[in-house]
């Protein structure tokens, strides 16, 4: 369980980090909390010649809670997100989901930016951000651009972020007052990835539904969202089951995963509807 | 590549340093370079929590932190939780009194995590203890007494604090 050797960089600002990425191309990778990347490096599934640690870049930290949108710095840890009372008051869905990620020690290191940028279909934040219609700011040699979460994930570990770009911030529009919300996750034990997880928003005339770890990307379904907005729960479940593409693995066969997906989605919808004003 | 780097830590209040490759995991640096063998290597996959240490005031799993990331950090291990005279600290004593261990392998991680949990939440409910300790596994399944020991530690620490005020 010893990773291959690498050169370690700890730049003090974003410009220096970008310049290291420019110099070393795809031999370099950034590390945030490291709780996805280090396990991959230990298994030698990732070999990285230049590791660029973002921990000293203070611009990447912090949470700003506005009336219309919430901005979360990429290096904000899950524990910091959970501990932010202003954020929990404005957007309680985030805390609800983050509390279901891994365990306290992992949440102290694991970051929101790392969780969304890594492209691991098991991570909880990508589906959640798709449900919320968040956008990610990535900064590269040509400057900054915004990418909608719903367009970010291409396949497992493949995203719209370029190798020379760093994901810096997540911008989330605040749902209308009275919108009901829920994040429900089925997992075999603490620390495990979801067998199925659902993020649901439902309010006056609108709804959004996304699921996690049931395809090689998170799945936000426009059809399921439209059905739920119209009050058709069974239509929403059917549309989502049509959109997911689970694979058999140690969590179970495909039929089981589809069954669990439907159960979890129904629970999340019921909880979100009960919370809607 | 793979050149050794000079690593400095504040470990249990003392300045320590050593040479290590950046890829060295913090747990290996503590145990092999510094001979601090309190934190254990259990699963080495960030699940079991036997390697839990306190880093800059937060509980972390030292099997999933590169020593390069920890360079400059303040680290506390179970060795740092004894009283100044070397006797057992409150949480350590309560684990002994309530038999909060069976084989003892998970105990250093349990105690180090419990130390931080009680800093973050000095009066936890039983449920909050269980949720806060969810990153530490006891393969003897001795959770009942571990939870008892932590709740007793909270009472003892709060009583000491009130007596001091």
TrEMBL record, chain A:
Keywords: FAD, Flavoprotein, Oxidoreductase. GO terms for molecular function: FAD binding; oxidoreductase activity. Gene3D superfamilies: 3.30.465.10, CO dehydrogenase flavoprotein, C-terminal domain, Uridine Diphospho-n-acetylenolpyruvylglucosamine Reductase, domain 2. The keyword Oxidoreductase applies. Residues 1-177 form the FAD-binding PCMH-type domain. InterPro entries: CO_DH_flav_C, CO_DH_flav_C_dom_sf, Diverse_Substr_Oxidored, FAD-bd_PCMH, FAD-bd_PCMH-like_sf, FAD-bd_PCMH_sub1, FAD-bd_PCMH_sub2, Mopterin_DH_FAD-bd. The keyword Membrane does not apply. This is Xanthine dehydrogenase family protein subunit M.
UniProtKB/TrEMBL annotation, chain B:
It comes from the Bacteria. One of its GO terms (molecular function) is oxidoreductase activity. Keywords: 2Fe-2S, Iron, Iron-sulfur, Metal-binding, Oxidoreductase. Pfam families: Fer2, Fer2_2. Residues 5-81 form the 2Fe-2S ferredoxin-type domain. PANTHER family: OXIDOREDUCTASE WITH IRON-SULFUR SUBUNIT. This is (2Fe-2S)-binding protein. It comes from Roseicyclus persicicus. The lineage of its organism: Bacteria, Pseudomonadati, Pseudomonadota, Alphaproteobacteria, Rhodobacterales.
């Amino acid at each position: 369980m010893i990773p291959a050797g690498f050169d370690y960089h700890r730049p003090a600002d974003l410009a220096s980090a970008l310049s290291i990425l420019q110099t070393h191309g795809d031999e370099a990778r950034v590390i945030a909390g490291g709780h996805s990347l280090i396990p991959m490096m230990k298994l030698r599934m990732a070999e990285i010649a230049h590791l660029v640690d973002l921990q000293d870049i203070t611009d990447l930290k912090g949470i700003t809670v506005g009336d219309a949108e919430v901005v979360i710095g990429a290096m904000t840890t899950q524990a910091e997100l959970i501990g932010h009372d202003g954020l929990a008051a404005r957007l309680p869905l985030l805390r609800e989901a983050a509390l279901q990620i891994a365990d306290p020690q992992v949440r102290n290191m694991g970051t929101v930016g790392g969780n969304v940028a890594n492209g691991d279909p098991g991570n909880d934040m990508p589906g959640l951000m798709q449900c919320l219609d968040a956008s990610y700011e990535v900064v590269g040699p040509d400057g900054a651009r915004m990418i909608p979460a719903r367009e970010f994930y291409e396949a497992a570990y493949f995203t719209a972020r370029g190798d020379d770009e760093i994901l810096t911030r997540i911008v989330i529009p605040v749902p209308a007052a009275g919108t009901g919300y829920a994040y429900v996750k089925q997992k075999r034990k603490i620390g495990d990835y979801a067998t199925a997880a659902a993020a649901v928003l439902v309010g006056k005339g609108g709804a959004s539904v996304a699921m996690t770890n049931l395809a090689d990307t998170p799945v936000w379904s426009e059809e399921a969202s439209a059905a739920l907005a119209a009050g058709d729960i069974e239509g929403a479940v059917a549309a989502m089951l049509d959109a997911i593409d689970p694979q058999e693995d140690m969590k179970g066969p495909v039929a089981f995963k589809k069954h669990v997906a439907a159960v979890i989605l129904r629970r999340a919808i019921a909880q979100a509807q009960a919370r809607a004003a | 590549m793979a050149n050794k780097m000079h690593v400095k830590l504040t470990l249990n209040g003392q300045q320590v340093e050593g040479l290590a490759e950046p890829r060295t995991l913090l747990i290996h640096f503590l145990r092999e370079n510094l001979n601090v063998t309190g934190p254990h290597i259990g699963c080495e996959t960030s699940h079991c929590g036997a390697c839990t240490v306190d880093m800059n005031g937060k509980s972390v799993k030292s099997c999933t932190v590169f020593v390069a990331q920890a360079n400059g950090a303040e680290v506390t291990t179970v060795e740092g939780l004894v009283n100044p005279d070397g006797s057992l600290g409150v949480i350590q004593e309560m684990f002994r009194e309530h038999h909060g261990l069976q084989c003892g392998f998970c105990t250093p991680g349990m105690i180090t995590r419990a130390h931080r949990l009680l800093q973050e939440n000095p009066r936890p409910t039983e449920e909050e203890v269980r949720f806060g300790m969810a990153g530490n596994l006891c393969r003897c399944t001795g959770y009942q007494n571990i939870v008892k020991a932590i709740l007793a530690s909270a009472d003892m620490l709060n009583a000491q604090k009130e007596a001091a005020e």
